[in-house]
Structures are given as structure tokens and as C-alpha cells.
Amino acid sequence: MNLGRIGAWVVSLVVGAVYGAAGTISQAYMLWGVPLGLVIAVVACAAVLAAIRLLSEDRWSTLAAGVGMVLTTLVLSGTGPGGSVVVEASTLGVVWTVAVPLVVAIVVAWPDLRSPSSADA
């Protein structure tokens, strides 16, 4: 195991944590009754996971980013020390809390569709 790969995992974990925090904070935004914040947050998290998976060609880097997203979402979903709540127990909050691990699982488990000849090159 080389130092570069471990560094990539750490960077992926931090990037996932940042996207998880941004999505958790913005998921409650509504515009004319449309949960725009939730849609943008889920799409952004899925996009960064897909980008990491495609650019690194490494499921472990993608999983590290996903772990960062899920852990940040779980930490910010709890009640703060002053009693404040970032993710309220509403339909949007539940959808966000379930969508993050689901998106992570789909992107990490997605099969590698490259042909064997291009993977060897």
C-alpha cells in the first residue's frame, strides 16, 4: 500500500465531509414549494461521488468520500449542544438522511463497465 493511495483516501474523505455538510445545511431550502435544496444537494453529492469514481478508478476512494458524507450528515442531524437542530424530523429530513447512504451505495457498487482490453492498457 503506497502513501499516494492513502493520501487520496484522506482527501476523498475530506471532500465527502465538505459535500455532506453543505448538503445537510442546504437540504431544507424550498422555492415556491419545491424542495430545491434537497434536489441540488443529492445531485451534487452524486456528482462528486461519480467524479471521484471515474477519475480515480478506485472504489475505495469513492467509499472514503461516501463515509465522509454519511458521517457528516449523521453528526449534523443530531441535536446540537444548545438544542439547535439542522435537519428537522420532516419528510425532507428523512429523505435526505436516507438518500445520502443510498447514493453512496449505488455509486460504490456500480459495476466497472470498461472492457477488459481497455482496463489492461
TrEMBL record:
The chain crosses the membrane at residues 30-55, 62-80, 92-110. Keywords: Membrane, Transmembrane, Transmembrane helix. It comes from the Bacteria. This is Putative membrane protein.
